[in-house]
Amino acid sequence: MTETTTAIVVVAYNRPKSLSRILKSIGRANYNTKNIPLVVSIDFSDSNQKVVEVAENFKWEYGSKEIISHKENLGLRSHVIKCGDLTAKFDAIIMLEDDLFVSPNFYKYSLSALQFSKNNPKIAGISLYDHPLNVHTKDVFRPLEDGFDNYYFQFASSWGQAWNKDQWDIFKLWYASNQNLTSDPKIPQNVINWSDKSWLKYFTIYLIKKNKYFLYPKISLSTNFSDAGTHVGSDSTAYQTPLNFKINESYSFSSLEASKSIYDAFYENTLLHESIHLQVADLSIDLYGYKSKNNSRYWLTNRVADYKILKSYGCSLKPHDANIICDIEGTDFFLYDTLTADQNTHSINNFRKVIYNIRYISFKNALLVATKLLTDKIKAKFGWS
Fold first, then answer.
1. What is the DSSP code string of 129-149?
2. 70 near 41, Cβ under 8 Å?
3. How much is the pLDDT for 153?
4. Which terminal residue of the chain has fewer beta carbons within 10 Å of its beta carbon, N or C?
5. Pair 272, 223: CB distance under 8 Å
6. How far is Cα 226 from Cα 238, in angstroms, rounded to an integer?
7. Which residues contact 164 (CB under 8 A, 6 or more apart)?
8. Which residues does 110 contact at the CB level (< 8 Å), separation at least 6?
9. What is the mean pLDDT of the segment spanning 264-272?
C-alpha cells in the first residue's frame, strides 16, 4: 500500500437493474478528489453477463475502476468476506451491496466516520444505514436524540458499511477460529436462526462477544430496496429510510463516553439503568419484550409477569426509551423485582401498541391491509398463484 486510499466496493450478483441503480447513485455523489478506486465484485452465475456489461459500461470519473468477475459461485458470505479482504490493498473500504442506494454525502460521511473511529478498539465498523425498524420484532426503532450525528449499536451493518484495515483484520482473526456458533442469551434468537450463509450473523456475534460497536448515523447515508434475489423473495419498501441530502454536510460524532444513544443487539438502550438508578449487572432491559429473561434481579419489560412491580411507565413519548428517562406514568412498561412474587393485574393493550408504531391508519387502509394479508394466507395454504 503506497498511499492512503478509501475504495468503494460494490458487491453484485445476478441483478443488472439493481447494479445499474446503485452505480448511478454512486456516480451522482459528492467527491473532492479524483483518486477514488471503484471495485465492482460480481459473483458467478450462469446469467451474469448482463451484470458484467452494466459494470463495464458505467463511467467512473473519480478514479480507477476495477471489475472482478468471479469464475465460481462464492455465495454471499464468502463473497462479502473476500471483498472485505480488499482492505489488504486499500487503507479502508466502503462496501455497498447492489440493492442499495446512497446519499450524495455517503463518501464524505464515510471518510469522516473512519477518521473519527481510527485507533478506537471499541468501534469495529461504520454503518451508512440507519435502522427504521427493529429487525427482530418489526417494531419502529429510533435512537435517542442526544445532540450528536451518530449512535452506537452492537449490531453489524450489511446495508452500507465501511471498515479500515485494522478493524477488518481484527474481525478476521476472530472469524478464523469461530466457525461453529452456539446459542447464548446475549445473542438475539433471530440472529442465531439466520442461515450460516450470512456473514452478518458472524460479524454481529463478534461484536457481542467482544463488546464492540458499529457507529451508526442518525440520518441514513444509504437505503435498501430489498430487491428480489437469492435471499429475498420479493422487493419491499419496509426497510427504506430517508437519506441525508444536506449540502456541505459536516458531522459531529460522539465518543462512547459522551453518547446517550448506545444500543445492544436487541435494540435496547444500554444506559437506561442510569435513569432507574440501578447497576447494569442488576438490571435486564427488555422494552421490546424479545429478550430471554436472564438472572438479573430487576427486569424492565413490556411483558406482564407475576413479580413485584417497583414502578410502571407509559409508552407515549418517542422513542420509547424516552418514557423511562422522563418517568412517564402508565402501565406499558414494568420494572419488576423478580425475587418477590406478586400478581400483576394489568394486561397488554395490543391496539395501543399498534397505533404507537404506525401513528395512524384509516379504516379504509386498514381494511385493504387486512384483505391483502388474508388473501395471501389463503393462497399460500392452497398453493394458488
1. ---SB-TTT--B--PPP-SSS
2. yes
3. 98
4. C
5. no
6. 8
7. 87, 91, 92, 114, 117, 118
8. 6, 92, 94, 126, 128, 162, 221
9. 98
Length of the chain: 385
CA atoms of 258 and 356, how far apart (whole Å) = 29
Grid coordinates of 220? 441514513
- Host H or E run for residue 153: strand 150-153
Q: Which of 8, 5, 215 has the alpha carbon at shortest distance from 102?
A: 8
Of 102, 98, 94, the residue nearest 16 (C-alpha): 98
Three-class SS state of 251: coil
**Contact of 19 with 54, CB cutoff 8 Å:** yes
Helix axes 76-84, 199-210, angle to 10 degrees: 60
C-alpha to C-alpha distance for 10 and 331, rounded to whole angstroms:
47
Q: How far apart are CA 346 and CA 10, in angstroms?
A: 51
Packed helices 199-210 and 165-176: angle between N→C axes, nearest 10 degrees: 90
Element (H, E) at 324: helix 322-325
Q: What is the pLDDT of residues 233-242, one digit of tens each?
A: 456 788 999 9
Mean pLDDT of 278-300: 93
Query: Which residue is it, cell 444505514?
Result: 129
Average pLDDT taken over every residue of the chain: 93
Question: Residue 229 has what pLDDT?
Answer: 55
pLDDT band at 232 (very low <50, low <70, confident <90, very high): very low
Domains identified in the chain and CATH numbers? 6-263 (3.90.550.10), 272-341 (no CATH), 350-382 (no CATH)
